[in-house]
Structures are given as C-alpha cells and as structure tokens.
Amino acid sequence: MTSIARLIATFGKLTEIEAAINAAVIKSKVPLNEIRVMLRSMVPAQAENTPLHQYIRTIFQDIGIGTLRVVRTDPFRWVYSIPDSQIPSLFPDVRGKTCYVTSDAIKIFYEKALEIPSEVREIRCRNEGAESCEFEVRMQPLAVYNSIIDEVDMSILKTLKDGGEVDRENEEVAFRLEILRTYRLLGEGYRITDIGVKFLEYRSKLPPAEDRERPWKTLTEASEVAASARSFAEAFSKAVGEGEVVEIVDESKVINVIEEAKSSKSFAELLAKSLKEVSEDDEW
C-alpha cells in the first residue's frame, strides 16, 4: 500500500512540475535581444549573469526542480547542472538517470520560449552516483544563427566578404568579430569562411529580422509566474501541446559543415545536409 501511495504521489508531483513549466512558458515568450545576449556568452559565468538565465533559474527554483547552473557554452551545445535537484529524491530506489522531467523542462523553454529547436538529454544523475545532475542541450544551428546574428553583424560580414576592413580596435567590433569566429562564420585572420558566405547569402534574401518584442515577465515577476503555475488545475488548463519533432545536432559535425559549403547551393541546403548526416549516424 505504501508503494502504491508513493507511486501516486510521485506521478502527481511530476505531472504538476510539467504542467507548471508549460504554464510558465506561456507567460515567458522572450524578446530576441535577450536570447541574443545569453547565447553570445563566451563562458559559463557570463551566461549566468544574463537576465534570461537568471529568469529561467528562478522559475526552476520556485517550481521545485532546483538551481540551474551553466557548465559549458560551446557553439550550438550548452551543458547545465543542477547540484540540488529535487527530482532524484522522487525515485529513491532507482539507480540510474531519473530526471526526464528536467530534460523536458529545459527543452520546453528552448523550443517554446526561445524558439530554438533543440534536443536535451540527461548526461549525469545523482541517482547513479554523480555529484550533480547534468543536462546537455544541442541546438539547431540555423535557429541559433538567426537568433544571435543581427544587422550589425551582417554589415561586418558583408564588408569582409567584399574585401573591406573593419575597426578591430573598437571594443564592440572586436567582441562581434570574436562571436562570428566562435560560430565559424569567420576564420583565421577574421576572414569570412565559406559557411559565412553561405549564411550571408541566405539571410540577405530574407526580410530584415525583427526583434521579437513579445510579452515577457521581468525577473522580479518570475516567482509570481511560478507560484501561479504551481496550481495544477490552472497550469493544466494553460498547458501547451507537444512540440514539433526536431533534428538532433552533433556539435562535433559543425566543422564538417564548412567542408561541405563549396558544394552546397544555399545556406539552407548546407544546414540540411549537415542535419541529415547527423541523423543517419547519431549515437545518442
């Protein structure tokens, strides 16, 4: 009888958390400039100081998942840890990874609030002996590029493509150059890469990017959002549906994208080839 009661309690808690995350996301459509600031973070400490990360961390804490920390910020691949995760305690007799609800929560925020298709998996869990539960996020490259590259970056890429020079002594320009190089749009000597050329062609055919100034609760209101979402009845009525199926992105294959660039007719085709290649031999 005790086991059945525990099972029902665990299921109820997990369902409440999932519904609360969905309800919070409805109130958390994030402006593009906030997404750009977070994804341009070069190191974990910088990422953790951004308003967007602090907002998501507060939501996770107040809903009862734990404290979300940033461990790695590789291009298209971030790793989070939750050293005080409350989820493993719901499965005291399990020896293995048990935090699927946390993986789902991170995925929902990336796909629904940030509009970046992603795959998320738990790579370490306290229930298998790790000191902290860790989660790997692999983001779709094209969605990342469209989020982090603004019109000033496009101007820099065009100038370099046309053989012009930019003021590398300018602090802001220097930072932008480093971001563009980190994301493989620039290479050695800050020369534009083949993938940079393809992206420039791709984006130049689209209407000017609009900053998605959507309703977004401020950090001071994060607790209020979480508190209202904790009510299962309210959260369930506001829950969003299942997300679209997304392609898995292997960050180790990003360099291979550059080698494919010369034989690709467009940037979209270039990314599609890369994603297809990953899906055929993925080892997740």
Description:
Strand 1 (69-74) and strand 2 form a beta hairpin. With 284 residues, the chain is an alpha+beta fold. Helices cover 50% and strands 9% of the residues. Strands 1-2-4-3 form a four-stranded antiparallel sheet. Helix 1 crosses helix 11 (232-238) and helix 4 (51-63) runs parallel beside helix 10. The chain is built from 13 helices and four strands.
Key words describing this protein structure:
disordered C terminus, Muramoyl-pentapeptide Carboxypeptidase, domain 2, 4-stranded antiparallel β-sheet, about 280 residues, 2 domains, alpha+beta, 13 helices, single chain, elongated
Please provide the count of β strands.
Answer: 4
Which structural class do you get from the secondary structure elements? alpha+beta
CATH topology type of the largest domain: Muramoyl-pentapeptide Carboxypeptidase, domain 2
**Secondary structure: helix percent:** 40-55%
Q: Tell me the fraction of residues in β-strands, as a range.
A: 5-15%
Please state the overall shape, judged from the principal axes of the Cα atoms: elongated
Largest sheet, if any?
Answer: 4 strands, antiparallel
Instruction: List the total number of helices.
Output: 13
Termini distance? Answer: 38 Å
- Per CATH, the class of the largest domain reads Alpha Beta
- List the domain count as a whole number: 2
Report mean pLDDT, rounded to a whole number: 78
Order of helices and strands: HHHHEEHEEHHHHHHHH
Q: Whole-number radius of gyration? A: 20 Å
